[in-house]
Write a structure and sequence with these properties.
With 379 residues, the chain is α+β, with helices and mostly antiparallel strands. The protein has helices spanning 2-25, 32-55, 59-77, 85-110, 116-148, 150-169, 174-180, 182-224, 234-244, 262-269, 271-288, 311-331, 353-378, and strands at residues 251-260, 293-296, 301-307, 339-348. Helices cover 74% and strands 8% of the residues. A four-stranded antiparallel beta sheet has the order 2-3-1-4, with helices on both faces. A hairpin with a 4-residue loop joins strand 2 (293-296) and strand 3. Keywords: Membrane, Transmembrane, Transmembrane helix.
Length: 379
């Protein structure tokens, strides 16, 4: 009767902690009440079958039956978790592998304490608490990443499970097997633990590298992006020119844009409105010249670089910009129009960027003068 009580206590602890472990590793789909109900149903089935085998005093058959019971529970629990089917299989095999390791370690450590049957239960409980605690505090973020990349580690986890299962299924006496196969089982546990440690380490390094790359990209964006408009700044323009204007460019067109009357806008309505005009001008330029890279290189000055685009396309995009400006000015609540002077220079290979820029800038100032003369003649 004493052995039965010890077995029942150990089985109860194992059943409860296994269920807790599974739902710690997984993401429950439903409310806590539903999840608790599911956990209770699994516990009842598990403990009732365990009681039967304790009654007939057949721990070996219980160990073998638990493997099939585990497969059944995995199928039953799948609708109650958020993971995909293969992620859930990965999760389930990880839980059973941890269970195998805990059973082996607790069984052999208990031999060093008085009342090994009860010591086994206490050690098993402590091992579960330590593993679940470590998982929640340190491993959980990496484990979620592992789950997302389950294809990389799936065969390793299955292989560990199959090795453990071989020892269980082939055993005629589970306790004798644990004693006789101590060395190979210990080596398997050490190897399995190392595999999981390596998996988590690699995932941690992957996350760290990803965060580092994101941080580098963030600072790169700050260095090359104009905060007000969101387009690239002068640094971005120079970097683009050095990286993209290669010898295989068939043609290059540089366009220069300058906002007219920005000082008058700032003086009349304040710098906030002036900034809005700059942002709106940037949006219009980017929309019209969507096949080009657009940069803000000064307070009211923008540049576009078009590679392998025909001169007719540039003229068509310029017409679209004029149309968008008219549409914008028709809706604006201010009595000052948004005018953008534009000049471009087009050249086929070989390309001289400096000459193109000077020519485009000169053409922009010609256009600026023409806009002013038109306005004077209309006033």
């Amino acid at each position: 009767m004493q052995d039965f009580g010890a077995d029942l206590l150990r089985g109860t602890v194992s059943s409860i902690m296994n269920i807790v472990l599974i739902f710690v590793l997984a993401k429950p789909k439903y409310s806590k009440k539903v999840t608790l109900g599911v956990m209770m149903s699994v516990f009842l089935v598990n403990i009732l079958t365990s009681i039967y085998f304790y009654t007939i005093n057949d721990l070996t058959m219980l160990a073998k039956f638990d493997i099939f019971l585990f497969v059944g529970f995995s199928i039953y629990l799948k609708p109650f978790v958020m993971e995909g089917i293969f992620q859930w299989i990965f999760n389930s095999f990880t839980a059973i592998n941890i269970f195998f390791i805990i059973v082996f370690v607790s069984y052999h450590l208990a031999q060093f304490f008085p009342y090994p049957y009860y010591s086994n239960t206490i050690i098993r409980l402590l091992l579960y608490i330590v593993i679940i605690g470590l998982f929640l505090k340190f491993v959980s973020p990496f484990y979620q990443q592992v789950m997302e990349n389950w294809k990389m580690y799936f065969l390793l986890v299955i292989s560990i499970f199959l090795n453990f299962m071989y020892y269980i299924v082939s055993a005629d006496d589970i306790q004798k097997m644990l004693d006789d196969k101590f060395v190979p089982m210990l080596l398997l546990i050490i190897m399995s633990s190392l595999i999981y440690i390596i998996i988590f380490y690699l995932q941690q390094k992957s996350i760290a590298n990803c965060l580092l790359n994101q941080e580098k990209q963030h600072y790169k964006d700050l260095a090359y992006t104009d905060k007000l408009t969101g387009v690239q700044n002068r640094n971005g323009y120079e970097n683009f020119i050095s990286c993209n204007l290669k010898e295989n460019c068939e043609s290059v067109c540089i366009g220069i844009y300058d906002i007219n009357n920005l000082k008058a806008i700032n003086d009349s309505f304040g710098h906030e409105v002036g900034d809005k005009f700059i942002s709106d001008a940037s949006r219009i330029i980017c929309k019209a010249f969507r096949k080009s890279a657009v940069f803000r290189i000064g307070g009211d000055e923008f540049v576009s670089v078009s590679i392998n685009v025909s001169e007719n396309e540039i003229k068509s995009q310029h017409k679209e910009m004029i149309y968008l400006l008219k549409e914008y000015n028709y809706k604006t609540p201010y009595n000052i129009d948004l005018d953008i002077a534009f000049g471009y220079a087009f050249q086929r290979a070989p390309v001289s960027v400096d000459k193109l820029f000077v020519t485009a800038d000169r053409n922009m100032y010609i256009n600026k003068t023409d806009i002013k003369n038109v306005k004077i003649s209309m006033s």
